[in-house]
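# nightly structure sweep
# worker-07 picked up a monomer target from the shared queue
# config: single-sequence mode, recycle default, output format = C-alpha cells
# input follows
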Amino acid sequence: MDFRKWITVLFALTLFAGFACAQQNEALQCTATGGVTPQIRAESYTDLMGDIVITCRGGAQLPNGAPVPQANIVVQVSAPVTSRLQGSDRLSEALLLVDEPQSGLAVPLGATGYGSEAPQVYCTTPASGCAATVRTLPTGFNVAVSSGTVAAANVFQGYVASDNRTVTFFGVPILPPASNGTFRTLRITNVRINGNAVGGGQFFGGAQVSAYVSTNASTSLPLSYPAQVITGFVLNSLSTSVKTSSANPYLQCKNLGVNSNGDVIGDFSTTQKTATITFKELFGTAFKTRVVPLSTSTTAGIVTNLTPAPAGSLSAQSVPGGVYTGYGLSNSESGLIAPLSGSFNAGLADFGTRLKAVFTNIPDGVSVWVDVNQASGTTANVRAVAIDSESVDEITALPSGSQKKLTVTGGSATAVWEIVAANPNQLDTVNFDVYVGYKSDTANGKPLAPTVSNVAMQYAPTSTVGIPSTTAKIPRFADINPTPAPFFKIVICQTALLWPYVAVFPTSDPGFDTGLAIANTSKDPFKDVMANAATGEQSGDCSLYFYGSDAVGTFDALLPGCNQANAITGRCVPTIAAGKIWSGIASRLQPSAKGFAGYVIGVCNFQYAHGYGAITDIGSRNFVSSYLALVFASGPLDPIRGVPGEDLEN
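# output follows
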C-alpha cells in the first residue's frame, strides 16, 4: 500500500514537471475518465459504480482576491441511481471532491495545507454551492479559500433528480491550475446504482454501465472527449447448492436428537447433520464486508470507520480514490465515508453482505439449527456470522456458540449470516451445516411423513426498493425467487411383506381359502439397545395388494377402522398396535365368484411387521398348508433388526 501511495505521488510530480512549461499559455482543458471499473452484482439494488475523475489543466492565472468560477456538474447514468438520500429534497450521499482532500498524495510546492493536504471541508449550502476566492501564495501558487487563509469547501453533495438517473452538483468552484505545473482534480464518488434493473450475465464482462458528464459552464469547466465514461459491468454474482448428508432421509418412527427425558435437543451429531448449504461468489468482489478492515480485530470489518484520516495519512475509509493501508483490501459495501450534518454518514453502508436461507415445509415438531460460523470447506480468510434477521442493525459483537436454533413459524424458518471477512483476490465459497431434531409420535402422525423440506438461498436483505431512499437499508437486494432444493426428508416407517401364493376357490369341491395374519413385533426387548432408547413401539395400518387371476382391484367396502387415504389401491388392514396381531381370510378381501389365485404384497406403515399365511380346504377340513410371509427390502435395512425402511434419492 505504501508503494502504491508513493508511485501515485511520483507519477503526479512527473506529470507536473512535464506540463509546467507547456501550460504557460494553454487554455483550460478538462477531461472526464473512469477510475477503477468495478464488477456490479446483478442481484443488487445499491452497488457502487466506479468513480469518475475530471482532470483540468491550463487556464488563465487569476489575480489574488478574485472570485473562483463556479459550475454545476451533471452526471447522467445509464442505470437507476440508488444513492442514499439525506432528506425530502433528494440531497444524496453522492459526493464530488476537489483536489483529493485529505489524501496527501500530491502536494504542489508552496501549497502546504491546501489541495490534497487540506482537510475535507463540506459545503453546507449544497443547493447553491459554495463560493471561493483566489489566494496567491508568496510562491505565486494560487489556492482557493473561503476567507483569509481558510481552505475553501472541497466536498459537495449531489442531488438526485426525479428521473433517478441524474445527479447534479451545484456551484462547484473550479480554480484554473494556470501555469503552476499542476492539475485540478474533481472526483465523483458514492454513486450507487440498481444493477438488477440492468441485468447481467456470467460471461464476457456482463452488461456495461456508463455515465455522461456535462456542465452548465463550459468556460469554467470545458469538458473534452471522453465526456462519457464506463463506470461498471453488471454480472450475476451468486450461485448456491445443497448437499444432503448420508443420514438423510429420516424415519418418522425414530426420535432424532432426543435426550433421555424425551426432550428435543441439539447434540449436532453426524446423525442430526442433514445438509450442507453453500453460497459461492461468481466474481471475487461479490462478498463484501461493511467497511474496509483497518486492524486485525475480528470485528474490524463491521465498525463505522468514521474518524477522518489526518492530512497525508491513508489510515481511514475517508481517502478519495479508496487507497487504504491496514489489514484489508478496498472491497466493502461502504464507499468513501464522510460524516456530514447530523447523523448522516455519506457512503457508510448499514452492514456487510448478508446471505439468507429460507427453509420451508418443515413438519410440525421438527427443530432446525444452523452453524453460527462458516463450516468446513469454506474458502480461507473468509468469515461469516449468524445474525437474528436480515434487516437487523449492524452487529456490534460477534455471536457466541456453535449452532443457532431457528424459529419455525407456519412450517418456515429463516437463517441469515453476514460476511465479516472476505478476500477479493479469490472466488469465495461459504458453507454452513444444517441440523434437525424431532420426537417421534407416530400415533398422531408426527412428524408428518412422507415430507420433503426445502431451502432457497440468496442475498439479504431482499427488498422491492430499487430507487433512492432515505430509509431503505444498504445494501439491499432484489428477491430473485430462487428455486428451492430439498435439504431434509422424512419417510414413513414401513415393512414390505410377500405372501407368495394365496388361493380362494369358493365354488370348487372342496373349496379353498387362505388365512392371513400380520404381527406387529415392534414391542420387543431390543429397543433399549437402539441409539434412541425412547423409540421402539410403533403402530400403523397396512395395505394388501393382490396380484393374479380375477383379482378385485377396487373396494367393495373398507374394513372397520381402515384409513382409506393410506390404502387407495389396496385392501386396507386396520391399525395394528405394537404387540398385537391382525388376522383375516382372503375371501373377505377378494370376494369374487370366480375365486382368486396369485400372490399378495402387504405394505405396513410401521417397522417390524411379520406375516403368516395358511391355505386350507373348505368343508372336509383335512388339508392345511402354512408358511411365513417373506420380509423383503424396499430400502436400507435397520442396523439393529435388519428390517427395511424406505430410501429416497437425495
